[in-house]
Amino acid sequence: MMRKGTTFTRFIIEEQRRIPNTTGEFTLLLSAIVTACKEISDGVNRGQLINVLGSADTENVQGETQKKLDIISNEIMLKALEWGGHLSGMASEEMEDVYPIPARFPKGKYLVVFDPLDGSSNTEINVSIGTIFSILRCPEGITNPTEADFLQPGTQQVCAGYVLYGPATNLVLTTGQGVNGFTLDQDIGEFILTNPKLKIPTAAKEFAINMSNQRYWEPAIKRYIDELIAGDDGPREKNFNTRWIASMVAEVHRILMRGGIFLYPKDGRENVHKGRLRLLYEANPMSFIIEQAGGAASTGRGRILSVVPDSLHQRIPVIIGAKEEVERVEQYHREMDATLGEQAVPHRQMEPTT
Ligand code: AHG
Ligand code: MN
Ligand code: MN
Predict the structure, then answer these.
(1) Direct distance between the N- and C-terminal alpha carbons of the chain, in angstroms, rounded to an integer
(2) CATH of the domain at 237
(3) Tens digit of pLDDT for each residue in 148-176?
(4) Ligand 1 centroid from CA 267, angstroms
């Protein structure tokens, strides 16, 4: 039987052909990332059968308990990407420092940062999780990159993507020319282009926020969420539905397909006073994808992609999804800051380019 559809391999090779004088290095790097994600998908799928679920009883640099699958997925990414000659370094949620490319392998012009398994608290309960990645250029002349070389604003990303391990495995990707979605055909082991040129529906009906943190929120977030909950009895004059999967990759995927907004704002808790999600390998790649699909991503006080990172594992408030909704949350922050005086030190933003 002939299968219909463009394979991921064909898609990236055809994309490459459209850009004159390319070396193919980027295409091979992407292909290696995708191979790693297929392996992670397999591990996630067979987790319970091969005894890789549960806690590893270790902590990562952020003081979070690591799951066995967090560590395994990180190893899979490192081993799949270190040998190809496309990279000069990698960084990940699960490693405190930059991972240098071992001396026995050639080095290349890119850097990769990733969250090997996002939403890993869901591994034992068979709820969707994912891998998030972001590709940056290694600064000119650098072959042994240090942390400073990774601290590039999200606008500099060459490519961002995620793979969602749900009932189906989806790959969603942008190189700054729109967003394309693929579905893994398990029979042939290839991703097939199933959702070309993804655009976020503009009318939002769903919101995602961890309501249990309500008492720690800033007034702007309280105001926005209160208005959504008030539904057609409130100023929004329509009803909204709520969702919380505890896996950003799954929330963002839903928003991309069905519209809505996701918020993980900064709050009054000591470990969340700068936000919960990490800028380089969670917020930036997701923001790049959502902006490319016609949505917006903000800290509440500025565009996420323009923030100049100050460290590898920096956390950041994330308000992401339908443009109108994100802009409304920003408006509420402006009004709050004007009334109460600036509550937070704004993030360092890039100089606007004209
Ligand atoms: P990770 O599993 O990589 O540590 O990330 C989990 C993140 C994110 O995906 C999710 O939206 C959020 O943490 C869940 O936070 P709560 O624990 O507050 O629900
Ligand atoms: Mn994560
Ligand atoms: Mn993770």
Answers:
(1) 54
(2) 3.40.190.80
(3) 999 999 999 999 999 999 999 999 999 99
(4) 15
